[in-house]
Write a structure and sequence with these properties.
Number of strands: 0
Strand content: under 5%
Number of helices: 4
Oligomer: single chain
Structural class: mainly alpha
Largest sheet: none
């Protein structure tokens, strides 16, 4: 009734189906890891940019303006930020609007700083 070729083709198809299911499960896990890494990287970029903005504002205040230690720290943060920005496009595929988000976070930080300054007065 069944010849050898039919049995062999059935076994090959079954093995192929099993291999494809395993491959799909594996690819899903890898993509989830890449997605999580991209999300974490975007958080790092956002926080570093906010830190740089905050340090800029502190340096510009009359109390600290011209302080060499703070100026060196500010320069170091800018260099680090520029270095890490090279990798931003690698991880920004999960958030293509990352630059807009960074700008929005920067604007929010400015508004908060202005509100704090008004409260102190």
């Amino acid at each position: 009734m069944f010849d050898n070729i039919t049995i062999i083709l059935g076994v090959v198809c079954l093995l192929s189906l099993i291999a494809n299911v395993i491959f799909i499960i594996y690819m899903r896990q890898v993509l989830m890891q890449v997605f999580n890494a991209a999300e974490e990287a975007s958080v790092i970029f956002t926080r570093l940019d906010a830190f740089r903005e905050h340090l800029d504002k502190i340096y510009e205040t009359p109390t600290f303006y011209g302080d060499e230690t703070l100026n060196a720290l500010l320069k170091h943060v800018k260099e680090t930020s520029d270095f890490i920005a090279q990798y931003e496009n690698v991880y920004s595929f999960t958030q293509p609007d990352l630059l807009e988000q960074l700008e929005a976070a920067s604007m929010e930080a400015q508004i908060e700083d202005e509100e704090e300054a008004q409260e102190k007065e």
